[in-house]
Amino acid sequence: MAVDSPLSSQLGPPACERDAKALHFIEETTSHADSVQDRVLTEILTRNSQTEYLTRFKLNGATDRETFKSKLPIITYEDLQPEIHRIANGDRSAILSAHPISEFLTSSGTSAGERKLMPTIKEELDRRRLLYSLLMPVMNLYVPGLERGKGLYFLFVKSETRTPGGLLARPVLTSYYKSDHFKTRPYDPYNVYTSPNEAILCPDSFQSMYAQMLCGLLQRQQVLRVGAVFASGLLRAIRFLQLNWPQLTQDIETGALNPKLTDPSLREYMDKILKPNPELAECVRHECSKDNWEGIIARIWQNTKYLDVIVTGAMAQYIPTLDYYSGGLPLACTMYASSECYFGLNLKPMCKPSQVSYTIMPNMAYFEFLPHEPDSFGFPRDSLPKLVDLVDVEVGKEYELVITTYAGLYRYRVGDILRVTGFHNSAPQFHFVRRKNVLLSIDSDKTDEAELQKAVENASRLLREFNTSVVEYTSYADTRTIPGHYVIYWELLGKDSANSPTDEVLKQCCLAMEESLNSVYRQGRVADNSIGPLEIRVVKNGTFEELMDYAISRGASINQYKVPRCVNFTPIMELLDSRVVSSHFSPASPHWTPERRR
Ligand code: AMP
Question: Where is the GH3 middle domain (predicted)?
Answer without folding.
Answer: 358-435
